Amino acid sequence: MQPVSLTVNGEKVKAFAEPRTHLADFLREDQRLTGTHLGCEHGVCGACTVLIDGQPSRSCIAYTVACEGREVRTIEGFGEDAVMAQLRTAFNQEHALQCGFCTPGMLIAARDLVMRVPDADEKRVRVEMSGNLCRCTGYRGIVRAILSVLELRRAGNDAAMEAAPAAANDAFTPFAAKAAPAAQAQPPVAAAPAQKQAAGTVIEDEFTVDHPLEKVWEIFGDMPAVAGCLPGAEISEHTPTSLKGKVTTKFGPMRAAFAGSAALERDESAKRGAIRGSGTDSLSGSRARGDISYQLFDAGSGRTRVAVAIDYSLQGPLAQFSRGGLVREFVKKMVADFAANLNARLGAPAGLAPKVAPVMEINAGSIFWNWLKNLFGRKS
Ligand code: FES
Ligand code: FES
User: Whole-structure pTM over 0.70, yes or no?
Assistant: First the structure.
């Protein structure tokens, strides 16, 4: 057992926990706060959602000892909360619960949404709530309830709600509909062709290739070659402006194969392009949409800098991976692997392609652990 000190619903708690005890078990069994429910215990269903330092978090995949010094707020800690009161009423009125098992997690996620995205429409509500699963009510009542609270808040006719701190969860940014960043002197791809308003989360990265710009530009126009550098990517059909294919990923024990299609854009003069696609994982039923934009810059000495921007959104059971820094770790690894394979391919003798993994594998023992360390590292 290890000592742990944290704040739970505003009260300081000093206790002992085994290193393997997750926060949900600690809250339920040690603190007797049984409003936090456990469904999957794999971070998928959202039933165990609590706030950790103001951010919605899955307490089933957070270790108690990693919460040293943190502030945890469970559903029991919202008794006096004006927005939560409105949500509770709306959930009752709109028949947004049946057995109630998912409801504590739903309410905490819904409150975060209401406060963070006050102008959310139905589509946004569905996307934002897609990481919380309900197995009996269906989602129409839940969506209606959240929309009614959003409307009430927008109308400004509820003094108590207006007094609630609207920016309480600013740090939590899943599915934030950000506008694509403005072009800079050496812009990351945000300034890709046919620039569109980003609809999901945007991640930017860049890498340098040890080959001249024209050569790199040429290979970016060869989709089978590009796919050949990306672990897990396969192309089944392609034309100069479109492609169909599949991307297979493995995250620890979870495997997904997103099959779909994409439109291709290229701007020869600006040396930039975009791949805009969407796909579905038949196993989990999750849907992914993503725009990958890129732009090439001459980095001097026969080298090329490649700036990449990925605007993505996930719906369904795998939407949980859109949250926190996990997906950033995933993208970082994907870009690094792609860059290494691209360098190898460009440097290989004609006709010899590097061997690329058939699956984009995320090692739960390294990336997931790094993510946890980043999440909790400040005080652990
Ligand atoms: S119990 Fe934690 S996400 Fe399902
Ligand atoms: S109300 Fe039963 S699982 Fe959602």
Answer: no
